[in-house]
Design goal:
It contains five helices and no strands. By secondary structure, the protein is mainly alpha-helical. Helix 2 runs antiparallel to helix 3. It is extended, with a radius of gyration of 21 Å.
């Protein structure tokens, strides 16, 4: 067991940096590809519109629903994390901050897109 700890202590940070570099290069490649498509073909819509145009309409539809499900699941995860953090300090009404946070997220998503952009930069 100590041999594995020694290997991690010796190579752990190097491998982590290499993996972070790979992740950053993948993210940069995707971002640049999206930018180039948006410059060459300015369409009304999001990245799902490009998926539907360049791959298949069914693929664009599936990407859109996957994105919506991902958003719903991560919102639920954020609400759960907020409740766990509040439980650290008190045992009374731990659901109330989660409810407030949920209404805050819903209110932000219902306002005009310009105001949403301003709130997201805060």
């Amino acid at each position: 067991m100590s041999h594995f700890i020694h290997l991690y202590a010796k190579h752990g940070t190097t491998r982590r940096r290499r993996n972070e570099g790979i992740d950053e290069s993948e993210l940069k490649t995707c971002s640049e590809s999206n930018r180039e498509m948006a410059t060459e073909f300015p369409l009304a819509g999001s990245f799902t519109t490009y998926s539907a145009r360049f791959v298949d309409e069914a693929f664009g539809f599936a990407i859109g629903w996957n994105y919506a499900f991902n958003d719903a699941i991560s919102t639920a995860g954020d609400l759960t994390a907020a409740q766990v953090i509040v439980e650290y300090w008190t045992d009374h009404l731990t659901w109330l901050p989660s409810l407030f946070f949920l209404f805050f997220l819903l209110a932000i998503n219902m306002i005009h897109v310009k105001a949403y952009g301003e709130v997201s930069f805060c």
